Amino acid sequence: MAWWQDFFDASYHQLWSHVHPPALCRAQAEQLVARLALRAGDRVLDAPCGYGRMTLPLARLGMKVTGVDYSAELLAIARQEEAEDTHVELRYLQADLRALEIDGEFDAAVHLFSSLGYGEPEDDLLVLANLERALRPGGALLLETIHRDAIVHRLSLGQTTGVRGPDGIILREKNHFDPIAG
Fold first, then answer.
1. DSSP letter at 8?
2. What is the rounded distance in angstroms from the CA atom of residue 118 to the CA atom of residue 107?
3. 8-state DSSP, 161
4. Which of 36, 41, 100, 109 is the most exposed place for a label (fewest CB within 10 A)?
5. pLDDT of 182
6. Which pTM was predicted?
7. How far from chain centre, in Å, is Cα 121?
8. What is the Cα–Cα distance from 148 to 138, expressed in whole angstroms?
9. Helix (H) or strand (E) holding 111
10. How confident is the model over 137-164, as a mean pLDDT?
11. Cα(135)–Cα(23) distance, rounded to whole angstroms?
12. What is the per-residue burial (b if ≥16 Cβ within 10 Å, else e) of 128-155?
């Protein structure tokens, strides 16, 4: 089992949800809609969607959204949030993005919060190919990653990434950069 398969759980939600409050998520969803030139009723794939940080705000803006994630725990949190809002067109699916089987269904796909790079390069290629296949012809993909040079800069200063949750839990990441492979 890969490390990430049990990492994204309720503790992950606890650590990150306060970093992305609802007002910020709504503003980011509005920016996504503008950048991708989406209109009410457009079909959007949010994959991976985690706890629905962007899925529900996009649906509230009139998009027909499908959120896909590997984590049953995070999807349960997302569904709980959705249950409070009955005026949205939204569905959640549990799936491994490397094996996603959706063909030409979406006007746009968003892949946010640097979720590539957790496995082998072949895994990332599978994810990207499946996202492409999920788009209708002419559909748009918005892919967010951590910029390599930002990581190199932080490492050169001896900095590590850390997040403190509202309950005092601390997540500290230990990064490694291979200058030969980039």
1. S
2. 27
3. E
4. 41
5. 67
6. 0.86
7. 18
8. 29
9. strand 106-111
10. 81
11. 28
12. eebbeebbeeebbbeeeeeeeeeeeeee
Residue 45: what residue type? L
Residue type, 86: T
Q: Which residues contact 22 (CB under 8 A, 6 or more apart)?
A: 57
DSSP letters spanning 38-94: --TT-EEEESS-TTTTTHHHHHHTT-EEEEEES-HHHHHHHHHHHHT--SSEEEEEE
Q: Which two tokens stand for residue 108?
A: 């746009």
Q: Which residues pair with 107 in a beta bridge?
A: none
Nearest C-alpha neighbor of 112 from the set 35, 10, 1: 35
Contacts for 12 with CB less than 8 Å, ≥ 6 apart: 50, 51, 71, 74
Measured between alpha carbons, how far is 161 from 150 in angstroms, rounded to an integer? Answer: 12
Predicted confidence band at 179 (pLDDT cuts at 50, 70, 90)?
A: confident
Asked whether residue 140 carries a pLDDT value surpassing 90, the answer given is yes
Residue pair 50/8 in contact (Cβ under 8 Å)? The answer is yes
Q: Give me the residue label for tokens 């609802």.
A: 22
Three-state DSSP state, 158? coil
